[in-house]
Amino acid sequence: MNGDSPPESGAAPGPVLSVADLSVGYRVGPGTRTAVRNVSFELAEGQVLALVGESGSGKSTIGHAVLDLLPGNGRLLGGTVSYRGRTISGLPARQLRQLRGRAISLIPQDPTLSLDPIRRVGSQVDDVLRLHTGLDAEARRTKVHELFELVGFHDVERRYRQFPHELSGGMRQRVLIAAAVAAEPDVIIADEPTSGLDATVQAQVLDLIDDLRRRTGTAVVLITHDLGVAADRSDLVGVLRQGRLVELAPTAEFVRSPRDDYSRHLLDSVPARLEFPDRGSGRAPSHGPAAVEVTNLRKHYGDHVAVDGVSFTVEQGETFAVVGESGSGKSTTARILTGLVPATAGRVRLLGTDVGDLSAKAFRPLRGDVQIVFQNPHASFDPRFDVLSVVAEPLRSFQPVRSRHRLRRENRDRVVAALEAASLPASFLHRHPRELSGGQRQRVAIARALVSDPRIVVLDEPVSALDVSVQAQILALLDRLQRERGLTYVLISHDLAVVRAISDHVAVMRHGRIVEQGAVAEVFGTPACDYTADLLGAMSGRQLAIR
Amino acid sequence: MTPYILRRLVQAVLVLWAAYTLTFALLTALPGDAISNRINNPQNQLTPEDGRTLKAFYGLDRPIVVQYAHALDALLHGNLGYSLSSGSTVSSLLGDALPHTLVLTALGLTFGVLVAAALGIAGSYAPWSRLRALLQSFPALAASVPSFVVGILILDGFSFRLRLIPAVDDGTFLALVGPALTLGIMIAAPLAQVFTAAITATRRQPFVHVLQARGAGEHYVFRHGVLRNASLPVITMLGLAVGELIAGSVVTEAVFARNGIGQITLNAVNTQDLPVVQGVVLISTTGYVLVNLLADVIHPLIDPRIRADILARRAKRPSRARPGADEAVPARLPDEAVAS
Amino acid sequence: MTTLDESPPPVGDTARALPRRTGTAVRRLVRHWSVVLAATVLAVAVLWALAPGWFTGASPTRIDAAQKLLPPSGAHWFGTDRLGRDQFSRVVHGARASLTGSAVAVLVGVTVGSVFGALAGWLGTWVDAVVMRLIDVVLSIPGFLLAITIVVVLGYGVLQAAFAVGITSSATFARLIRAEVLRSRTSQYVEAAVASGARSSTVLVRHVVPNSLVPTLSLVTVQFGIAIIWIASLSFLGLGAQPPSPEWGRLVADGRNYLASSPYLVVCPALTVVAVVLAGNHLARHFAERQER
């Protein structure tokens, strides 16, 4: 669909949506912070414009400004938004309401929070028809049923009567799409429509939006942080940086040769384009016992089987990745390896020591050798601690209480060394994690994991909460540290591109089982299992990988 | 739902039994009682012989465990014992007073709910942020004024100065207005605070934003999105407010010199009439527990998530283990594949 | 990336880290003038309780038949009561009974509540089950009524009333502290500490206890106000402070018979109670808001 031409409808020429010189600010304290500066673009019927940018770039703000639904402290500072040649910014509220949902509709970013938890999903779609059509209740119900069929539901009446919590994330997003197209709008603003969804579900949702768009000739503004999605699904790409549109170009051209330096930097940061030497082929086996040896591991939560007989071996000095979608059991596996939850059955050997049935207390001496980096570093820091206390914790844990005072200076030096290893200056010692950016926090978490000189580090989704350019920096850091220190990584991730970039071996998990494992190049190159092939097929950004 | 209600009912009965036992234990720890006080009174005309008879009559000479067993047995037969000071049955005393207090608290509750609803809505939707801030500060102010002060001011203002309502209970509806207003203001404050906070929180929810993006106006959003979501915490608060109401009636009845449970409580406390105190606590606790039971039943009717929780729990006892971050929701239909 | 990504200040490696301190102390004072006012009101009330002599030379109990029921004046700021006692002096001296009472009540509530709540939250299993049921039972009795019942057992007096109010409120404290301990115990930072090798005693002392106590602070302040009101109410009913000792609720009760002719006898002590409670609640809200940040 890349480079798709608009459908040959008989509609009037000219842009269906145009934004001219748009500036938006937020009132913060006494001043105003400008979030969007002089942004202009035009969108023809049936076109898809992808607005990409990192957090804080202003991309979502543009979406809100087009609908004139800025948060309470937001304010239009200048510029106009026009729909079919008619200026709509600054219209009276009543007229704006008639346009919202009917002329321009929204597919919101979080399907869980974007549905009213205590109303049936059918009546939430029905809202659009009540607000914009004169249909009676029965006709509206029939129409909602049709819409539900359109978005791929089968048992439509049952779906109509369900509540959001009874639906999966992907199904909730389908409901929101049904509501967005209910009044047959000309423009859809899709604001991160797939964030938080599994890759296969994300591909299905994006396919659905694509399909509906093509049938109806609706134009789409696709707001996304994922350059892969943008490259796969749009006609035009707009790159935002700190509120400015730094590049606006046809997608193919943008992917081939971006004109702006920042765009190029972003594109080069995409995990699909990252390459670290000698990865993926399975490196020469190291000597000594295997770092991790897992045999027939099982974990039950009541009746629910989270991990269902998993076996794998991780050699010292390599990166072993466990990939899977939510609910596959990959995080539980990581938590068993780090002794945070006990296994129900099976054997785990770490560096030659059998820990399968060790209690939490008996596991403790091993913790100096096995550390973990969590997905959300901020939540893993005690809110009262500064960087020094956070990073020093693994050291203090193994020091007798009495000698703590004596060791204070030495601890401090080791913390500084760990921070430096994670490319943070010593001046961060007395900062509070709250004052740091997401990438800096993850560096602090890495420093904490390194300070006790462990041999194995479990990385639980270490970059999935980070912006793409920060992601690339952290991955490079992890790669460097592994080479310098001979670390063994167990990487838990849902992102196949990340796995491909820094792993040697990979295991694909589904429903608590490993469906396929082997060297990364083999598994990704010639998947033996259908599920692996599906996962690879759902990966966004294939356009980007080819250079 | 029925098994859930039954289970809650059984729980309520158990809680009542435990509360009764707790007060019984508290009150028997007391060294004195009305009879001993009368016997030990220097001016008493009772012979020690008469005293013993009296004590035996009330069962006060038996071991505590036996007293407790007897009290419980009598309770199951609807007998709350005898007042130590007047000799009449506790149930008849309370039965006479209860209607007065019930009418008063019901009116107070109605008034409080109306005021809280009005304040909550006005405090959230009034034009001009300064007006909203002013309206929102009322509940905080009211919550800082003791109810006896409110009562005295109402009594002074409406009865003595304006002469709008009678100062003593003449049995008319008008005489109820003052005390009901006092109770109403007392419970309106926390209710309005909770309601305002809930409205504010709900309006920040993304689904409200989405509803606006569909073209809904403020009124539509309130009726179809905000109101029901915001009423959930208010229902919980309402259950708690009834407890305040029962306790508040003690103070209010004292200020307005009205007959009722509150007046009986005070008399019983002043004469150390333990069976009556025990009876008052039991009957108030019953009312309080029942109202909270009602709130627990209404909650799942409004919130389908709680309903689902209840049904799930009936099917299977919850496991105490905490699943890993990405395994939090185990049983979801893989409908995704079916859909496309 | 999943929430509104523009409204908070930008974070990202490219963005400069936030300045460490926003604004000077003076600017903060100005911005929180109402907090300063509230703190001042409380401080004055505490000083009244500690050193009433600094604020009034008049005796709170000296009877002067010639001076009875005088309206407020330069000599008697709050007027005089039916026995000619200086009402301002009685309010100032009454602070001791009221504030000591509520301090005792809060102390009892926090102590008893913390022990039960922390045990339940930390130990879990049957201890938790038993404590939770106990809390349910105590909370099932309307609070003020339970306090009255305890007063019946303990006898009349400010300290007894304070103790009764404290015991009654301990269930609320226990429930909050249990929830906080549980939240902290299952939080990711505790998990991270365990993963980094911390002993369970270290986890308890360094992470769980401090992080559970901070949220209690706002309840302590709220409960302080509630305790003042409840003790005043008990005294008003004649179940708390006994004459002739001045206590704010008692003063209102004494004054109400002269409401028509001398309203200041009720209004002055009543306003004092309202001001102190309002100040306490305001501080509580301030603490709660700071915590959310």
UniProtKB/TrEMBL annotation, chain A:
<keyword id="KW-0547">Nucleotide-binding</keyword>
<feature type="domain" description="ABC transporter">
    <location>
        <begin position="292"/>
        <end position="536"/>
    </location>
</feature>
<comment type="similarity">
    <text>Belongs to the ABC transporter superfamily.</text>
</comment>
<dbReference type="GO" id="GO:0055085">
    <property type="term" value="P:transmembrane transport"/>
</dbReference>
<protein>
    <submittedName>
        <fullName>ABC transporter ATP-binding protein</fullName>
    </submittedName>
</protein>
<dbReference type="InterPro" id="IPR027417">
    <property type="entry name" value="P-loop_NTPase"/>
</dbReference>
<dbReference type="GO" id="GO:0005524">
    <property type="term" value="F:ATP binding"/>
</dbReference>
<dbReference type="InterPro" id="IPR003439">
    <property type="entry name" value="ABC_transporter-like_ATP-bd"/>
</dbReference>
<dbReference type="GO" id="GO:0016887">
    <property type="term" value="F:ATP hydrolysis activity"/>
</dbReference>
<dbReference type="Pfam" id="PF00005">
    <property type="entry name" value="ABC_tran"/>
</dbReference>
<dbReference type="InterPro" id="IPR050319">
    <property type="entry name" value="ABC_transp_ATP-bind"/>
</dbReference>
<keyword id="KW-0813">Transport</keyword>
<feature type="domain" description="ABC transporter">
    <location>
        <begin position="17"/>
        <end position="267"/>
    </location>
</feature>
<dbReference type="InterPro" id="IPR017871">
    <property type="entry name" value="ABC_transporter-like_CS"/>
</dbReference>
<dbReference type="InterPro" id="IPR003593">
    <property type="entry name" value="AAA+_ATPase"/>
</dbReference>
From TrEMBL, chain B:
<dbReference type="InterPro" id="IPR000515">
    <property type="entry name" value="MetI-like"/>
</dbReference>
<keyword id="KW-1133">Transmembrane helix</keyword>
<dbReference type="GO" id="GO:0005886">
    <property type="term" value="C:plasma membrane"/>
</dbReference>
<feature type="transmembrane region" description="Helical">
    <location>
        <begin position="138"/>
        <end position="160"/>
    </location>
</feature>
<feature type="transmembrane region" description="Helical">
    <location>
        <begin position="12"/>
        <end position="30"/>
    </location>
</feature>
<comment type="similarity">
    <text>Belongs to the binding-protein-dependent transport system permease family.</text>
</comment>
<dbReference type="InterPro" id="IPR045621">
    <property type="entry name" value="BPD_transp_1_N"/>
</dbReference>
<feature type="domain" description="ABC transmembrane type-1">
    <location>
        <begin position="98"/>
        <end position="299"/>
    </location>
</feature>
<dbReference type="InterPro" id="IPR035906">
    <property type="entry name" value="MetI-like_sf"/>
</dbReference>
<feature type="region of interest" description="Disordered">
    <location>
        <begin position="317"/>
        <end position="340"/>
    </location>
</feature>
<feature type="transmembrane region" description="Helical">
    <location>
        <begin position="102"/>
        <end position="126"/>
    </location>
</feature>
<dbReference type="Pfam" id="PF00528">
    <property type="entry name" value="BPD_transp_1"/>
</dbReference>
<dbReference type="Pfam" id="PF19300">
    <property type="entry name" value="BPD_transp_1_N"/>
</dbReference>
<feature type="transmembrane region" description="Helical">
    <location>
        <begin position="172"/>
        <end position="195"/>
    </location>
</feature>
<keyword id="KW-0813">Transport</keyword>
From TrEMBL, chain C:
<keyword id="KW-0812">Transmembrane</keyword>
<keyword id="KW-0813">Transport</keyword>
<dbReference type="GO" id="GO:0005886">
    <property type="term" value="C:plasma membrane"/>
</dbReference>
<dbReference type="GO" id="GO:0055085">
    <property type="term" value="P:transmembrane transport"/>
</dbReference>
<protein>
    <submittedName>
        <fullName>Peptide ABC transporter permease</fullName>
    </submittedName>
</protein>
<comment type="similarity">
    <text>Belongs to the binding-protein-dependent transport system permease family.</text>
</comment>
<dbReference type="InterPro" id="IPR000515">
    <property type="entry name" value="MetI-like"/>
</dbReference>
<keyword id="KW-0472">Membrane</keyword>
<feature type="domain" description="ABC transmembrane type-1">
    <location>
        <begin position="95"/>
        <end position="284"/>
    </location>
</feature>
<dbReference type="InterPro" id="IPR050366">
    <property type="entry name" value="BP-dependent_transpt_permease"/>
</dbReference>
<feature type="transmembrane region" description="Helical">
    <location>
        <begin position="103"/>
        <end position="123"/>
    </location>
</feature>
<feature type="transmembrane region" description="Helical">
    <location>
        <begin position="216"/>
        <end position="241"/>
    </location>
</feature>
<dbReference type="InterPro" id="IPR035906">
    <property type="entry name" value="MetI-like_sf"/>
</dbReference>
<feature type="transmembrane region" description="Helical">
    <location>
        <begin position="29"/>
        <end position="51"/>
    </location>
</feature>
<feature type="transmembrane region" description="Helical">
    <location>
        <begin position="130"/>
        <end position="152"/>
    </location>
</feature>
